[in-house]
């Protein structure tokens, strides 16, 4: 994942490979957790077991259990939520809208247009650049830098709530909740058309498009498709668009965008998924002018991470957060709400 532009990432936990260990030809059968605690001497067996439970450890490319018996030639990969070296990322004094913060985590409201993590083509000006500065601004000189852990991602032009871990143990426990689909995530979306039925569940596997690797699409191929579930409900119908609420049960790359396109109702102004042209409405010049003006009000995909709920990794208390729609979505929704269809 390191080296891919953030545009490829939607909701997946952000991980970077830290260790890759290949079992020797003469390797005797040994439990995975014991094998890693031996081969990674500075890592405790408890931390190894937690990493395995969270899905941060794979054997031959697949997640497995701690009691898996390592065999000769097995390839073990260990990933963590930050790059291997801090000097890969520059700390930058960029404003952050902090919704909540304590000793082990943060909840932030990311604006549309901000890339989440530095990657090819976006090494500066990202949320992680800003978090590195914020978390380390008061540390004494020579102290080890605190590194933010992105528990999940949204892409550049999706606004709203993101969960950040401030230390590794909290990151692993929060990542486990995402892995187990126990986190509550609700999005607001302005889409083209009027969904029928007004509410339901999309249970369709998703995979990278073979025609354009930037895109995710529905597939029936169980070998490459990842299980993906989106629950939706239409909140308000306008003339040729609708305001929807989407709840993620899983969190795949571009899940909402791909699922809604498959449903026949792509996000308003989502150029990658076909929403940057008038998909509904008359072919009148003044209607096209109205739509063009709406695109100017909200030039990015109209998707906002509205609410987020999870168990606190230390106290176990249920935490619930919600942020209002940003100004660009409020403006374009108001415009559609006031639009009067032409005869």
3D structure, described in words:
The chain contains seven helices and 18 strands. The protein has 343 residues and is α+β, with helices and mostly antiparallel strands. It has three domains: 6-11 and 84-175, Pseudouridine synthase (2-Layer Sandwich); 16-80, Structural Genomics Hypothetical 15.5 Kd Protein In mrcA-pckA Intergenic Region, Chain A (Roll); 184-338, Pseudouridine synthase. The strands form four sheets. Strands 7, 8, 9, 10, 11, 12, 15, 16, 17 and 18 form a ten-stranded mixed β-sheet that branches. It has a four-stranded antiparallel β-sheet with strand order 1-6-3-4. A two-stranded antiparallel ribbon has the order 2-5. A hairpin with a 2-residue loop joins strand 3 and strand 4 (62-63). It starts with 15 loop residues before the first strand and ends in a 5-residue tail after the last helix. Residues 1-11 have low confidence and may be disordered.
Please tag this protein with its features.
Structural Genomics Hypothetical 15.5 Kd Protein In mrcA-pckA Intergenic Region, Chain A; Pseudouridine synthase; disordered N terminus; 3 domains; alpha+beta; 4-stranded antiparallel beta sheet; 343 residues; 10-stranded mixed beta sheet
């Amino acid at each position: 994942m390191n080296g891919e532009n953030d545009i490829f990432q939607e909701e997946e936990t952000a991980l970077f490979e830290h260790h890759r260990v290949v079992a020797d030809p003469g390797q005797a059968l040994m439990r995975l957790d014991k094998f890693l605690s031996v081969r990674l001497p500075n890592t405790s067996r408890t931390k190894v077991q937690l990493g395995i439970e969270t899905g941060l450890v794979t054997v031959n490319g697949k997640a497995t259990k701690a009691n898996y018996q390592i065999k000769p030639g097995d390839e073990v990969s260990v990933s963590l939520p930050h790059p291997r070296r801090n000097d890969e990322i520059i700390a930058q004094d960029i404003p952050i809208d902090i919704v909540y913060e304590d000793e082990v985590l943060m909840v932030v409201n990311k604006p549309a247009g901000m890339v989440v993590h530095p990657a090819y083509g976006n090494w500066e000006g990202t949320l992680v650049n800003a978090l590195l500065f914020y978390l380390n601004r008061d540390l004494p000189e020579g102290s080890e830098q605190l590194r933010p852990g992105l528990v999940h991602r949204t892409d550049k032009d999706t606004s709203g709530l993101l969960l950040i871990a401030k230390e590794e143990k909290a990151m692993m426990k929060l990542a486990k909740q995402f892995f187990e689909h126990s986190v509550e995530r609700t999005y607001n979306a302005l889409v083209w058309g009027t969904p029928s039925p007004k509410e339901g569940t999309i249970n369709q596997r998703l995979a990278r498009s073979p025609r354009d690797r930037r895109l995710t699409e529905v597939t029936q191929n169980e070998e490459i498709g990842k299980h993906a579930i989106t629950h939706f409900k239409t909140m308000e119908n306008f003339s040729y668009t609708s305001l929807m609420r989407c709840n993620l049960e899983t969190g795949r790359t571009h899940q909402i965008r791909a699922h809604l396109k498959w449903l026949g109702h792509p996000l308003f102004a989502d150029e990658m998924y076909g929403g940057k042209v008038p998909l509904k409405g008359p072919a009148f010049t003044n209607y096209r002018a109205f739509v063009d003006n709406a695109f100017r009000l909200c030039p990015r995909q109209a998707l906002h991470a509205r609410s987020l709920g999870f168990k606190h990794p230390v106290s176990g208390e249920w935490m619930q957060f919600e942020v209002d729609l940003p100004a660009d979505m409020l403006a374009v929704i108001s415009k559609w709400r006031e639009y009067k269809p032409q005869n």
